[in-house]
Amino acid sequence: MFQNNFVNIAILPKKDNIQKTDKKLSQIDDNWLIHQIEIYEEIDKSKFQEFSDLTNFDSFFEYRKNKLLNFIEDRKKFLLN
Q1: Distance from C-alpha of 60 to C-alpha of 48, rounded to nearest angstrom
Q2: Which of 16, 44, 50, 79 could cross-link to 12 by cystine, CB 3.0-4.6 Å?
């Protein structure tokens, strides 16, 4: 369920997404890729360990849900103005 959940989708450039595929955030050790995740996904490295633990799925879900809803709301306002 978690693997194919909408909030788990990474919106990274193709090359970066391929490097991240099938890895938990805590398993990523490439500093450049970590930086890309921080930029594109707005997940700070300090959250990688927490969000890699499935027992924290609810926390991850809420974090990502809020990011996605804010993004959609911002785009909606932009398009309506």
Answers
A1: 10
A2: 16
Strand, helix or coil at 80? helix
Cα–Cα distances in angstroms (integers) from residue 60 to residues 15, 24, 26, 80, 81, in the given order:
24, 13, 14, 30, 32
pLDDT, tens only, 45-74? 999 999 999 899 899 889 988 888 888 898
pTM for this entry: 0.68
| 50 and 56 Cβ atoms separated by less than 8 Å | yes
Structure tokens at 27: 């398993």
CA dihedral 38, 41, 46, 49 (to 10 degrees): -130
